[in-house]
Every structure is written in structure tokens, then in C-alpha cells.
Amino acid sequence: MKLITCGLPYANGKAHIGHLRTYIPADIYVKYLRMLGEDVIFVCGSDSHGTPIVVNAEQANMTPKQLVDIYHKHFQEIFEKLDINFDYYGRTDEEYHHQTTQEMVKKLIEKGYVYPKEIELAYCPKCERFLPDRYVEGTCPYCGEIARGDECDQGCGRHLEPGEILNAKCKICGSKAVYKKQKHYFFKLTEFKEFLEGYLDKLKGTENALNYARQWVKAELKDWCITRNLEWGVKFPNEDLVVYVWVDAPIGYISFTKKACEKLKKDWKSIWLKDGEIIHFIGLDIVYHHCIFWPAMLKGADYNLPKAVVASGMVKVEGKTFSKSRGYVVWVEEDYLKAGLNTDYLRYYIINYTSHQKDLNFSWEIFKDKVNNELIATLGNFMYRVLHFAWKNSKEIKMDVDEEVMEKIKEVKDKIVESLNDWEFKVASDAFMELASFGNLYFQNAKPWELIKKDKEKCEKVLSSCLQLVKALIIFGYPILPKTMVEMGKIVGIDVKNSKIDDALKVDETIALNKPKVPFEKVEDEKVEELEKKMMRRIRGEKMEEVVDIEEFTKLDLRIGKIVKAEKIKKSKKLLKLEVDIGNEVRQVVAGIAESYEPESLVGKLVPILVNLKPAKLMGVESQGMILAVDVDGKAILMHPERDVPVGSKIR
RNA sequence: GCCGAGGUAGCCUAGCUGGUUGGGGCGCCUGACUCAUAAUCAGGAGGUCGGGGGUUCGAAUCCCCCCCUCGGCACCA
Length: 652
Description:
By secondary structure, the protein is α+β, with helices and mostly antiparallel strands. The chain has four domains: 171 residues, Rossmann fold; 101 residues, Methionyl-trna Synthetase, domain 2 (Beta Complex); 138 residues, Isoleucyl-tRNA Synthetase, Domain 1 (Orthogonal Bundle), CATH 1.10.730; 89 residues, CATH 2.40.50.140. Strands 3-2-1-14-15-10 form a six-stranded parallel β-sheet, with helices on both faces. Helix 5 crosses helix 9, helix 14 packs antiparallel against helix 16 and helix 16 packs antiparallel against helix 17. The relative contact order is 0.09. It binds one RNA strand through helix 6, helix 12, helix 14, helix 15 and strand 23.
């Protein structure tokens, strides 16, 4: 038995194209496996725990559960609409999942892989509680930037372990937190180093995931703090703590398997306690958890281990790095579904643009081209011209298929099966499209429109061969284009949902036809323009929505300074150390402009500088201000006053 | 800076255990055809295989150096 899982979407935001990049290929893979007669279970669910959900729920004035309800439902709807059909789509805040998690945690405790340790944690005296993760705001111990409890999100991006953050403040009431000792629990990840090294050698999947994980294991493993001070989450045994969300989230794979098995009358133990083949589909961002923490936990608690981890590459939007805040995003509901576009188009784009491991660029222009030129002109046109021609002339065709055609179908089938084994879904979809091209060529060369006038028998033979190709296309194409192929199946009398891949190689006595209709609607230029405009508006506009009042602005002491000295900071790629004359004094400022400017070229330049910025240390160098610069795709471009002005002049 | 993955025609790619003129798809140009959603079919143009060295009778393919892109880590005040 095989189990396929997808990384759990975090129930804290809506579905975007980045999510689909994992779920659609996984679904296609599952549909193909089923056609190959494999016994497959496919599960996923909402990741409901963790502090962001608690914080966001509080801000929205609702309970965490209510917040999760919203997004859980959202994702279920999205998946249904896109024909991503999980056998079970659960959520981690349900009782059954808590039970499964606790069983596993207890097992790890019993086996001695968990130990308590006192650590100093931020505690809010006013709210009378410890402040986990994003309840804390403070200073990053590494870069001095304002950070939240678990991650220095504004600054260096480092992951912070509980207790590491400095000058902590409670995010809820704003009062200064004190540090108090508290007992927390750690998982002995370090004991699994050797196991992991061996395991990662055998683990299958995409190279992008495996290499990445091997790198981590080679470098350094630290024991892992697995408890948090929260009410929302899975209770840690005998303590007033909750297990860390990244402990319980992957256990969702097990608890959702149990639920799926209940429904399907199958045995979950044969998968998780014996030798079922477990395959995880994930995004590249969570390789660490799936290739390191997760197998170590499973090993420690005597569970079966994943056989493969398949990681999808990044998604770009219109050639730019995916970014929700910058507007380079495609929301599934708001952008795609609302536009009334056929969901099969998106499935095809995602599977066929490039190899699963590589970066996928989503662009509406390319989308239009792929749909109109490939799906419609090649595939749709072939199916329709055959069906329409055949139906117009006879309604029922006696089947007598050309050997050459059968061989071609067989060849394409083999290619599809082979590429699936390598997680090369594009290759599979290319093979499928190649069959449609073959069909067009066959039809064109055989000229049935001429044959029908002089040799009806021969014409029928040609049509029968073409119909067999259509049938094969319906079957091979179903995993990729389920909606369309179900409809096409009805025309030729195939129940494609229950077909096997080898049915494409079986020839019926006759095929009776229903009235055909065109498989796909074109994507019009106007539609694409509209969608592009919408995206451009978002890219330009979104950041301007936040309003700042004049008082806030006047707090900033902005002046013109003159760069009097500039030098590189050793071992730094982006930073320059500048000395800037601001009239009454000379300030030392560290600026991240080394990629755009040579130090020599800067001396003497007048630049805007924020003078009253809190000083910070970068790479050990003190910085007492900030040079303002234009950000063009991450590159810094300096600004200068339009004419000479005295140093220290105020900017308003 | 370190580590990993890459850089093949406008775009997506095959080839990478070295060997006849580097394949395919989309787009582009020309012609043919009309069953078909101006779809299809044939032909064609287009590549210093990131750059430079080297090994070899022979390199996209092996070795060295460099450049660029992406991701991770390390400083992007």
C-alpha cells in the first residue's frame, strides 16, 4: 500500500499558486498511480496550531478555532474545485489528532529521547504568563534588529530558540517582560545524527530536497525544544505546556491516515507500523522538517519511515520572486477562480511548465499561450475534429485499429509510467501531448474527408484508429485534466474515473458516439489583459495603503549628509562603512549598498540620512544612522539633492 | 564569503559514462490543406551549448579559473 501526503497548509491565510505547486502534482501522481492499479491513500489537512494563529485570532476578535474554521473551509473548497481529491482532509485541532500526537510524544518520552531543561524565557508580569514565539517582541541577539520570539523577521532572518530574544516586550499589553526560568522539554535530535546520515543516503525523492537535508545533517544538529507556553495546541503530558506546532503538524499525516482508513476500511498500521510506502510531497521551504525532525521522531517512536520526499521548486510570478507583500502572487480564489477560468488549465500549466524541482514562472501571457496553442490547438482540436467528423458521418464506428497507432499508444504509455517513477511530471505530460500531435498528423495524412467520398470502409478504419487515440488521450489525460476528460469520456462512453491505464490499449468492437462538444474554451486576449492589469495594480498599490500621520513622520530626523569616507567591511558582501558629515558631527554609518557602489565613488556625495535611528551593530561595526536609497529589485540606488546644499540641511 | 542547484536559439527543455551535420516543443517566416476552436500539415530561419584556459585525434559532455541566476547560512540601519 502507498500513502501520499501533501504538506499541511497553515490555516492562517488563503490558498495561492505556491500551494498548488505541491498539491496539483501530488494529485496527478495519485491519479496516475490509481490508474496503474496501485492501492493508494492520499491525505492532507489543515495545520491549525502555532502562535501566529493564536495572535491573528486575538486580533480578529475570535477564537483560534473560529479562525481555523474559516481557512479550513477555504482550502477544502479550493481543493474540491481544482479536483484535488484527498481521501481525507483533516485538521490538527481535532481530538483524534491530539490523541495520536500524545501517543507518539509519550513513546518518545518512554524511550528516553525527551529531557527537561530549565531555560530563561520572557514572562509578562501583567498578563501573568510566559510569552511564546510571536507573543514576544524584542531585540535579536545576533543583529540587533527588532525581532519576534521565534524568528528575527525584520533583520537577519535567523531562527530564534525560546529564550534567546533580548529586551523582550509583551506583544499583547506592551509591558516589559521579565526573564523567568521555566522547565521545557527537548528532543534529543543529536542522538539521531548517524541514523539520519544513513537514512538520507537511502531516502528517495527529488535531489533538491535530499541535498539540502544532507547539508544540514553534515553541518550541525542541535537538540530541539518541543514545548511551548500556549493553550492552543496539543497538551504535553503532565505539564501546563503544549507541544511545538512542528512536532504535531507532521503527525497529522498519521492521524489523517487513520481517518482515511476508517472510511476506506483499510489498515493504517500496515502503513505506519509496517512497510507501507510513504511519500511526502512538500515545498522546498519545509525540507528541514521532513528530512530531519520528522524521520528522527518516527525512528525514535518506532514508526515506519518515509520512503521518498518530493519537493517542488519555487514559484515566480511574472518572472519575479514570489512575494505576497510585494504583490507578486496569484490567489487561487480571488484571481483565478473568480476570473472563471477552467481549472484544468491551471493544472496543466503547473505540471507542464517545467520540471517539478525547478522554479516555475507563472505569467498570464504564457498561460494564455500554453492554453491556446497547446491544450486547444493541439489536443482539443484533435479530439474535437475526430469526434465531430465521426459523429457527423456515422454515430457508431466499428473498431479496427492500425497497428502503428497501437504501438504509438503503447510507447506513450511507457513513457508516462517511466517518468512518474522519476517524479518528472512534465515529461509525462509532454508524452501525452505528443500523442495528440501524432493524432493530428495521422488524421492529416490519412485525409478522411476525402476518403469518405470514395472509400467509406477505409475511412471508417482511419476514424477507428483516431478514435482509439482519442480514447487513449482521455485516459492518459485524466489525471492532468480531470474535468475535461470526464466530459470527453461521456462522448465516447468511457467512465474515465474508473478506468485503468491499460484500457487505452484495449480495442472495443464498436464505439457509439454522443454529440461532441469542444473540450476547451479559448483564453481571450482581453481576459489576459484584465488579469495582468489586476496584478500590476496590486504590485504598485498594495504598499501605499498604510497611512502614516504627520506626527509619525516628523519623528524622523532626516538630513542631508556628505560622505567623507567610505570603505568596505571585510567579509561582507553588501555592507560599506561610511563616515557621513551631518553638519555638527560626523557619523559612522553602515550601509547595505556595496553591491551597487564602489567605496571610492561615494566620497563627496550628498545623501539623505536618517539621523535619529537607534544605533546598531552590524558585522561588529557600529552604525549611527541610515542612508536612504531607492530600492530597485533589491538593488540600492542613491539619491542626491538637485543642487548643492549645506550639509546638515533638514529634509521635510 | 561558505554550501547546494543551475546557466543549451525569444521561452520551456533533451543530450552531459566524450565521437558522424547539438534533438524536441512553443513562438516566428514561407507554402499546402479545409474535417476541425484562423485549428492542422510541410518546409525554413534562429544556437560562439555562460566566458576563458587545458586534457584529447576529437568536448555541450572531463579538469582548472572566472562570470551570472536561484536557494540556504553568514552582515543587507
